[in-house]
Amino acid sequence: MTPVIALVGRPNVGKSTLFNRLTRTRDALVADFPGLTRDRKYGQANLAGREFIVVDTGGINGDEEGIDAKMADQSLLAIEEADAVLFLVDARAGLTVADQAIAQHLRKQEKKVFLVANKTDGLDGDVAVAEFYALALGDIYQIAASQGRGTNILIEEALAHVEVANPEEEEEFSDADPFLDGELLPEEEEEQRDEDYASLPIKLAMIGCPNVGKSTLVNRILGEERVVVYDMPGTTRDSIYIPMERDGRNYMLIDTAGVRRRKNINEAVEKFSIVKALQAIDDANVVLMVFDARVGVTAQDLTLLGFAINSGRSIVIAVNKWDGLDTDVKDRIKSELDRRLGFIDFARIHFISALHGTGVGNLFESITEAFDSSTKRVSTSMLTRIVRMAVDDHQPPMHAGRRVKLRYAHAGGYNPPLIVVHGNQVSKLSDSYRRYLINYFRRSLKIMGTPIKVEFRDGE
Ligand code: GDP
Ligand code: GDP
């Protein structure tokens, strides 16, 4: 499971600054579901090849009352989902009453807490942080988030802690999975890779907002009411992994909706866990994104899709509750989808009714197609031929009086497919030409349902 690190602290200590530095994402995922009033931000991050999720819990003072206390509780719920908590304090402002109140909350949480003194730039760190030892949270990490000083060591230690704390979590489904972020193997091992692909189940994550019909769809697919009564150990943030077979292929269904059934339905906050969705995306080969036809595409959906694309996952879209709609309503929904999902034109869209079972079977054709596309083997000679054809059809533009030259291409990895194109002055290629090439590869190789990454290398 992708580790989750939560940032906690009173307003203005530098949480957003640290969040931005760690995630470098332009569009953080902001939780704005009904019942979730506080701005929590979720982002994907990577340190030395290790993926993790960062949650900025929003500011809390620790002494909130009334409605403020409710909101603070929700921030604290985000802490529950985290593997480690970074508690930020401001080394310039010194120790405050609010810091003490938050520390008291955190001590009750039984979570690993790293006390982080931020803004130590230009200060004598050891002197500045001395007073924070009064919080009795152990070692103090000195950082300057705005400059990135001390942040790598901090994250390394937090991740090391998570690894030690959850050694068994890794292996069950995600360890040694050649599907994910596949790297190119030496030629002689490629056949073995194909065999591995054929024998392992396709991990399929069912993602979507509350009430779009995920559980109904899971039940429909399994043909029984098993999911509802499935008794799983673990916390609310865990998804259910359900092995299944269909048309001779094996799948591992990752059900992000199931566990909450056992919990109190009135707990609005627990109905949907972004962390759970993000972890399911990270762990999946194919993401099945479910929409409610009557609600349409929400901002959350778009951001979740953005995360899936960013993670290189294959994607299939299911527009559910397609039953009982008038033709003009259907037309309106379809044109809205066209407009809003233009950025993900590689994903197939299915119109289904989980309730009646209409269209559910066809989903699996697109799911296997997407998976097979993402693991497809392509030879250097074929890729090079495609590059030459693309250039013949449409020359790269001139730059400073010289034409950009594209010479050859080879596969650089799988899942998603990575194609490396070699040439001269390739850094001068415009975005629109890059897009043209990607689409050319997509059409020529018949790659559907998965993003394609193209990397350009100069002078070889
Ligand atoms: P948040 O409310 O906890 O999310 O805090 P912000 O990230 O918005 O930061 C609050 C202020 O502190 C901003 O003006 C930042 O530029 C500043 N800040 C953040 N990190 C540092 C740092 O490492 N050094 C200094 N000197 N200022 C910082
Ligand atoms: P989840 O929160 O995404 O797991 O959604 P559920 O599976 O619990 O479904 C939410 C509601 O939508 C329930 O009342 C379902 O009966 C209803 N629902 C699910 N699928 C369909 C469908 O295809 N058509 C219609 N009309 N209702 C559906």
UniProtKB/TrEMBL annotation:
The keyword GTP-binding applies. It comes from the Bacteria. InterPro entries: AAA+_ATPase, G_ENGA, GTP-bd, GTPase_Der, KH_dom-like, KH_dom-like_a/b, P-loop_NTPase, Small_GTP-bd. GO terms for molecular function: GTP binding; ribosome binding. Residues 3-166, 202-375 form the EngA-type G domain. GO terms for biological process: ribosome biogenesis. PANTHER family: GTPASE DER. Belongs to the TRAFAC class TrmE-Era-EngA-EngB-Septin-like GTPase superfamily. EngA (Der) GTPase family. This is GTPase Der. The lineage of its organism: Bacteria, Pseudomonadati, Pseudomonadota, Gammaproteobacteria, Alteromonadales. The gene is der.
